[in-house]
Amino acid sequence: MNPKWWKESVVYQIYPISFMDSNGDGYGDLRGIRSKLDYLQELGVDVIWVCPIYKSPNHDNGYDISDYCDIMKEFGTMDDFDRLLSDMHSRGMKLMMDLVLNHTSHQHPWFIESRSSKDNPKRDYYIWKKAKNGGPPNNWESYFSGSVWELDPQTDEYYLHLYSKYQPDLNWENPVVIDKLHEMVEWWLKKGVDGFRFDAIAHIVKAEGYPDALNPSGAKTVRAYEMFSNLEDVHTLLQNLHDKVLYYYDIMTVGETSGLGPEQALNYVGDGRRELNMTFQFEHMNLDAASPASGRWDTVPWSLHELKQIMGNWQTVLHNRGWNANYLCNHDQPRSVSRFGDDLFYRIPSAKMLATFYHMLEGTPYIYQGEEIGMTNVAFESIDDYRDVETMNYYEEKRSSGVPEEQIMAAIHKKSRDNARTPMQWDDGDEGGFTTGTPWIEVNSNYMEINAASAVKDPDSIYHYYKQLIQLRKKHQVIVYGEYGLLLEDHPEIYAYTRTLEDQQLLVILNFYAREPVFELPSELAGGKPQLLISNYPLSKEDDLGSLKLRPFEARVYLRQ
Ligand code: TEU
Ligand code: CA
């Protein structure tokens, strides 16, 4: 089972701008994070992943870095960072940085030089091309709408940006760029950080020659994911980074890799690949998209059957060969309880059920800030209240192509990244206790009911349930290392599985809906004295595991040994 600390850990993701504001300017900051370490330690998480905190003009909340070795002024100073790191270490917690290596900000000094003239020595730090037939060099579409190419008047050439035009892609074909990036990664490691989440790492290599993607509909731009996702050379570059830099440190690494299944993921995380410890996969994030290629905005109902297939496949293929990173939410996704649970009538039980689900799978669980108190999606009436560059670009694009306002806002309410980016709700005071000033984005109006202070006080809260799940992980190796086995494959409402490690077996029973199906224990699991480890409902004495009527969104975990 090859034990590792990062397999046994629980990660908590912080989106700093929305976590805690210490000085009333409306932006979360590093001191704010420090002031909440007690809360996080009490919850029991071991690793904190902090989204980018580097110097940035903030067009994409820090995912547009203008200096890799400095701190965003809104977030504080390098001194604040050093103090945060040492405070965390003295509590036995680890800090994972979020590193954007695919692109920088357009205000990074490298790009400012690069764009200044065609013969600037840093010209080849980025990807510059001449016009083709009087237009962009190819038809690839940006993740954030429009072409990936931006014409720069200074030299009359185009530069490539997979994300916004303020995020030019670095040229990984240039060995000088690679050296500089390695140096910078090493610089952070020497400071003592405990790991990295590598942003958009699947995209650092683009198809040779930048060919047009197939375009049967004749649209101006097409989603050409296959042209810049998970290409073979990404692995060479990652092995290089690993062998030259990462290998020398006891750290944890996770790559953000959309567009692959578990077999392909083994190329990143397979034992012996010398690349990454784990990757974030997106297959279950596409469950409610019409197709993976249709992008994030159009939504269809997701199916439990498909969820079982996808998660089961990842569990099975990676077992003993790699490692999973399990999550239901992050800063790019809607809130998990609103998306996969029921945030209206069954918010508390469904949030607990979902927590049970991803904490009891094989892999490292990632909690996104606020998920542990069941924070929900938000529905601002006006586009003016949204801040996310992806959301705003989408709105503009749809408006200008004549889509009715209502229809656009409906999609935004469901899927906008800002759903997960409203400020952390700490208490029922002004602005949910996030700031004494005006928050950079409005607080969700349900903060009076949903907030950390009241969750900490209430022993039956989602927060305490998370705490229990985390404690169980520390106690039972089978939760970390047990092999997954699906039960009741075709059941339309119940997701049940076992996890087995030698003579220990977990039995996880999850009702994904508000209806009340009966769980019939498969005969091969009968016998023995299963011990209940956790449940999101009070138990009654008569509960008979042989045939169990489940309550709405009920979750139970038993241990048999
Ligand atoms: O997101 C990248 C990201 O989600 C894509 O790589 C993904 O493949 C695609 O959207 C699938 O639908 C990261 C950050 O998490 C995000 O916040 C940033 O905006 C983005 O990179 C750019 O840095
Ligand atoms: Ca602040």
TrEMBL record:
<keyword id="KW-0378">Hydrolase</keyword>
<dbReference type="InterPro" id="IPR017853">
    <property type="entry name" value="GH"/>
</dbReference>
<dbReference type="Pfam" id="PF00128">
    <property type="entry name" value="Alpha-amylase"/>
</dbReference>
<dbReference type="GO" id="GO:0004556">
    <property type="term" value="F:alpha-amylase activity"/>
</dbReference>
<dbReference type="InterPro" id="IPR006047">
    <property type="entry name" value="GH13_cat_dom"/>
</dbReference>
<protein>
    <recommendedName>
        <fullName>oligo-1,6-glucosidase</fullName>
        <ecNumber>3.2.1.10</ecNumber>
    </recommendedName>
</protein>
<dbReference type="GO" id="GO:0004574">
    <property type="term" value="F:oligo-1,6-glucosidase activity"/>
</dbReference>
<comment type="similarity">
    <text>Belongs to the glycosyl hydrolase 13 family.</text>
</comment>
<feature type="domain" description="Glycosyl hydrolase family 13 catalytic">
    <location>
        <begin position="13"/>
        <end position="421"/>
    </location>
</feature>
<dbReference type="InterPro" id="IPR032091">
    <property type="entry name" value="Malt_amylase-like_C"/>
</dbReference>
<dbReference type="InterPro" id="IPR045857">
    <property type="entry name" value="O16G_dom_2"/>
</dbReference>
<dbReference type="InterPro" id="IPR013780">
    <property type="entry name" value="Glyco_hydro_b"/>
</dbReference>
<dbReference type="GO" id="GO:0009313">
    <property type="term" value="P:oligosaccharide catabolic process"/>
</dbReference>
<dbReference type="Pfam" id="PF16657">
    <property type="entry name" value="Malt_amylase_C"/>
</dbReference>
<keyword id="KW-0326">Glycosidase</keyword>
